[in-house]
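User: Hello, can you help with two protein structures?

Assistant: Certainly.
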Amino acid sequence: MNVPKTGYRVFSANSTAACTELAKKITERLGVELGKSVVYQEANRETRVDVKESVRGQTIFIIQTIPRDVNTAIMELLVMAYALKTSCAKNIIGVIPYFPYSKQCKMRKRGSIVCKLLASMLAKAGLSHIITMDLHQKEIQGFFSFPVDNLRASPFLLQYIQEEVPDYRNAIIVAKSPSAAKRAQSYAERLRLGLAVIHGEAQCSESDMADGRHSPPCVRNTFAHPGLELPLMMAKEKPPITVVGDVGGRIAIIIDDIIDDVEDFVAAAEILKERGAYKIYIMATHGLLSADAPRLIEESAIDEVVVTNTVPHEVQKLQCPKIKTVDVSMILAEAIRRIHNGESMAYLFRNITVDD
């Protein structure tokens, strides 16, 4: 049994062994056993969950890391949460270090805000609380009808910079686009380092995605009232690529929350090399590293990519030795302990800035 006197259980909702590593580290730190359950895909690809022990009246924490098969992981989480709900669990708390679909949190033309849909699905399945880390946009917390604890990975990444980056006092923090400047500034201020921002047409920021604002106007109706005519909008054009800040002879450390498709990071590294940076690091919380990311990193001017273990990426590390991992199981385990004991979470957010 999973320490019955504690009044809480910890389960993993993943069906793949690689995705349960973080859950095992968290339970080891908590001093409890991982709950007994079986999560698997049937022959017709339906998800099935069997809980192998009683959870009646217990507080349940479900740890779900998100592999490449995002939709399967979501279904595993939903089915397990509903199984625990129908088994009379008292509270069901999701520990989702990387929250999927977090980039789809804004309306894009005739699309949908999928992140809000997922929040509603989780509530309907029975979750009453979520612990996550570095949401892509902090406003995502407003999509939920229950509490969300958005932990930060910055203390671990800052510690890595101070301990593992040689001569980090000669470094400069770089934002690869103006939209990432606030996060980069937060790191720069705590490390007492300078700040540089890359701006220009080589960057393809999220705000430039097609959202309908530049759709061609309707054919002007000569019979319409002239007062209804809208002024013509000037098309937005990016200036030539520019690095705001001196990176010559410095170590450049690019800060972001997610590294997925790495083309932007590779292009930024090339620009920084041209401007005189002699070493380039990339720091990000969530290392999705999709598609050919390991190969592109290995062939690029990037010297090291540092990510946390919110997302499993052992295969990518075998393909690219430049990828390093920082363990964040400590803060996730402490969050679970504090929530179960009814303690304040403020300690986990000490020295955390609003823009972090």
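That covers the first. Now for the second protein you mentioned:
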Amino acid sequence: MLSPFPKSSSLAGEGRIVVKLSPNDVSTLESITYQYPLKLISPASAAEQGSVLIFLLSYGGGLVGGDQINLSIDVQPKARLSIVTQGHTKIFRSITPDIVTRQNLKVDVHDGAALCLLPDPVQPFESSIYEQVQIFKLSAAASLCLLDWVTQGRTARGENWSLGRWIGRNEVWTAVGPGASSSKGRLLLRDTVILDGATRPTGSPSLRESMHGNAVVGTLILRGPMTKSLGKFFLAEFAALPRLGARDFRSAELREKEEAIPQSPFERWRTRRLQEERDKQVLWSAANVRGCIVVKFGAATVEAARNWIGTMLVQEGSIERYFGEQALMCVR
């Protein structure tokens, strides 16, 4: 029996999101399409949310060996989009090394528009092979907040960086024409992380040993006017970190005297955070690369990293102010 419906032109794993600004200055979803194994869900949004919220999911909660995801996103002028997940993106094992699971994301963010992508971390299972490419083309006044992080695997099953291979590449481009997709543009940032547990150079430590006790590593990339103050916040806090090997030459009497001076609420917050970073073994750095603020971090546990990045974002406040509280649900 012939189907009365037209045949779909979409391929497996393909999806597209288009967000625009409505006449009443509220970001709205113009269109959303997806094909298995990709799944996209957008709850009804309200004006006070600040942005359109979309859950990026996959059937069964993960990607099976050989799955291919290709998602394109168009955030039109002055619109705002937040993307989150509902748990770790699980990468299941590949039967053979030539079966590669791939996820590709291409994003155009136009003038005055903004994208906030704060998902849960990727969780690669033992012997999984995964490659991820995320390309962002930003107009001059566009904004981006991108979190990309990966865990050691399923600790309950004894996995500790037991993956076969994990490659993640993030690129940030700026357009030279009037629209974000009008030209090739200029490459501002290319950040690539390669974790190879299968083919190690002779005499080199294993992948597990080279991670030095970190259960998760990640990258936060910020660019644009809506994340400008957040970027300055990370740079300032990194500059305030105690230097490695630094010594306190103050006398005990002087230390007690200075510690007795009342601290401001922010100073008390910083003191507590620094102590938690030491206790929970959180390491991080921040740098300005061609106008992009790049934050690298690692932690001994996933929850320590989640609490740290969430605390930093909440304390500064820009993400909640521009995108709404729901944009932070994966880092709380």
